[in-house]
Amino acid sequence: MYARFLKRPLDFCCALAALLALSPLLLVLTVLGAVKMHGNPFFTQPRPGKGERIFRLVKFRTMTNERDAQGNLLPDDVRLNAYGKFLRSTSLDELPELFNILKGDMAVIGPRPQLVRDMVFMTAEQRRRHTVRQGLSGLAQVNGRNAVTWESKIAYDLQYIEKITLLGDIRIILTTLGKVFKRDGITEEGSDTATDLGDYLLASGKITREQYDRGQQEARRLIAEAS
Predict the structure, then answer these.
(1) Measured between alpha carbons, how far is residue 30 from residues 26, 56, 92, 93 in Å?
(2) Contact 145, 185 (CB under 8 A)
(3) Average of pLDDT values for 106-113?
(4) Mean pLDDT across the stretch 76-92?
């Protein structure tokens, strides 16, 4: 009953209430972001949602668009400035996703929306995580977030979709708030950003270079079709 009929209306009401309550903070972060990032403070990216329908996820930008002499983006650790690190460590960069929840692209709680280039490397069983709306937070996020392995993250996602309850979602929300205050598990140890699934599988020898290239090509095709 909750998952089928009540979760979506509650998500909408919670997102709307949060946007109204946090509107002063959102305004401040928008202005600060425009200054610190030297331009557009928002970052959008295609992500696979429910039914693997690709939507545009919106976040506050945490990396600048600095480029080298040839016009190529500089490495992540160079473009991730102090302000961006602050946004990530406090999870404030995630706040604009409340608009995605209002639109129905996302839920408050659910599997986190991964990149399209991550989805294409998942098995058919792992891709069942896309049978529900992706969430602002989820079971994987309260059990390690980016500090756990890809296998563990997806296992938590599959565990969540098997039994979605109001009490379970409330428990995840409360635990998420505690994690945010502790700034726990934001990135992998020794890394500024989380490793893509395809890169992880290639580096660990679980897929070949040919499979990796084929997956990247498939991701680009899906994004182009959704544009």
Answers:
(1) 6, 18, 11, 10
(2) yes
(3) 97
(4) 89
178-205 residues labelled b (16+ CB within 10 A) or e (exposed) = ebbeeeebbbbeeebebebbbebbbeee
The pLDDT score that the predictor gives to residue 184 is 65
Q: What pLDDT does residue 193 have?
A: 60
| 77 C-beta neighbours (distance < 10 Å), count | 10
pLDDT of residue 116: 97
At residue 75, the pLDDT reads: 82
In this structure, which long-range contacts are made by residues 92-95, counting pairs with CB atoms below 8 Å and at least 24 apart in sequence? 92/25, 92/29, 92/60, 93/59, 93/60, 93/61, 93/62, 94/59, 94/136, 95/22, 95/25, 95/26, 95/29, 95/60
Q: How far, CA to CA in Å, does 72 sit from each of 68, 104, 219?
A: 5, 35, 21
Contact 140, 113 (CB under 8 A): no
Structure token pair of residue 20: 């109204």
- Tokens representing 91 are 């999870």
Q: What is the pairing mode between strands 134-137 and 42-48? A: unpaired
Tell how far CA 132 is from the center of its chain: 15
Are the CB atoms for 59 and 43 separated by under 8 Å? yes
Measured CA to CA, the distance from residue 2 to residue 199 in angstroms comes to 37
